[in-house]
Every structure is written in structure tokens, then in C-alpha cells.
Amino acid sequence: MTSSYCRSFFLLLSLFLSYNTFARGGNFNTDFDLLFGDDRVDIKEEGKIMSLALDKYSGSGVISKNEYLFGRFDMQIKLVPGNSAGTVTAYYLSSQGSHHDEIDIEFLGNLSGDPYLLSTNVYANGNGGREMQYYLWFDPTEDYHTYSIDWNSERIIILVDNKPIRVMRNRKDIGVSFPTTQPMRIYTTLWNGDSWATRWGQVKLDLSNAPFIAGFKNFNANSCIASPRTDCKGFNGGQNKGLDGESKQILKNVLSKWVVYNYCRDFRRYAHGLPYECRKENVKPIV
């Protein structure tokens, strides 16, 4: 082995070790702990498949053993069928404390025949209020679909079946907080949110339909596991730092056809001025 080859080998090895990545093909048995719900969390097929249940006594959920700082997180989910009003199925990243960071994907149940709402939000330094909500172009109760969070220090991309539905860029240049420093754990939960989830809380959970059950499989995290020895600063878990031309067009179509609520268009809520990143002079092109 030549000296130049040795140097290259050890350089590549050091770069590999500097990113303590979580291997593809996660396992619910080994990668998550019970959060609440006891045996309402049902893990099968050696950790490859999980279901969560909600009944009159409790919902259920799990939390990742590891904390992550940047990466791409994929989960295939099959939502509660039938009358799911009042239920909230959530898949999100969050740190701890009053100044926490958080990236949310939440599914708000509805009456039979009405579509689910997919609600997204981002918290940074304890500040949220960045909701965007969507209808889906398919029935999410009939089969599993892949929902993804792709997060690095420059932007967050939320995807459905690998189609981008939201991009939020780091706008610290105009004083807007962005999650860049706090490691976050993965939460997957099913719970009773009927005080607000369906028609602003007007429709309550019908416990005659309990237990409500949602399915999860093929969890995957290509991400940087945060630790005192790991520098996650430059880690990017996605295939691209931005969007290619086709993905940009898909995003534009989603934004034009499927958005139900956009905080940047809520002139009643922000009667005295939209958030800085929403103002015309601060809006940047999709990247």
C-alpha cells in the first residue's frame, strides 16, 4: 500500500467516522422506545412493522432512542380508516425544552367520506406558527404511503411519496429562527386531538369506532446521530441540497392545487404584518 493511497484511505475513513450515520432500514424494536400506550403499540415481523392504537383509555406512541442533527427521515404510514374525526396521527422531530425546535407532519382525521388534512409546521427556538395544511391526491387509508422530512442547515423539505410539498429555507439573514443547533428525536404517535383537530374541534372522537389503528413500516433514517464526538454541521441526509427542475414543477403543482392553509396568506391572523419570511421583499425563488 503506497503512502499516498494510505493517506487517501485514512482520509476517507475519518470522513466516514465523523458522520455517525444511522443505517438504512430502521427497526422499531431496536431504534425506538415506548413513549406511551403500553400494549397499544404493536410491533411485528422482527421490528419491521408497527401499529399504534387509540381507545377510550389512551393513545400510543414511540420515541427514537437516538437524537439526530440533520438527515432524511422516511416512514410509510397507513392512516386510520373510516370515521377518524378527532384523531391525530403524528410523525415528527422535536428537541426538548421551552425553546425547542420541531418539524411536524400531522394527519388530522375527519368524518367518513371527508379527506384527511396533512398539517405541517416548523418550530425554531420555541417559536412555531408556520403551519401549512394540504389535502392529499389519494386516500391515505387504503394503502401505505411514504412521508419524509429532509433537513439540513440550509433548508427543510417535506415530501409525500418522494414528491416535495413544502420547502422552508433558512432565513437567519433576515432574523428568522431556523432549527440548526438542537438535536431532535423522532416521535410517532396516535392520540385524541378532538379539542381542535377536526373542524376546529366541532367534531369529537366517536369512541364507538374504537380502537382506531394506524400502521407504520419501512422506517428509514439517513442521518447524523448527535453525540459529543460527532460533528453533524455539514451533514446532508438527502440526495440533493435543493430540488431539480422536475421536483420544482411538482412542488409548484402541489402548492397551486392542494394547499388548504398557508400561514403566509393568513392576513387575518397577521393583520399587522405578515412574518418576515412571507413578505414580498423577502421571498426567494424555490431552490
TrEMBL record:
A single BP term in Gene Ontology: xyloglucan metabolic process
Localization in the cell: Secreted, Cell wall; Secreted, Extracellular space, Apoplast
Positions of glycan attachment: 110
A single cellular component GO annotation: apoplast
Signal peptide: 1-25
Family the entry assigns: Belongs to the glycosyl hydrolase 16 family.
Protein name: Xyloglucan endotransglucosylase/hydrolase
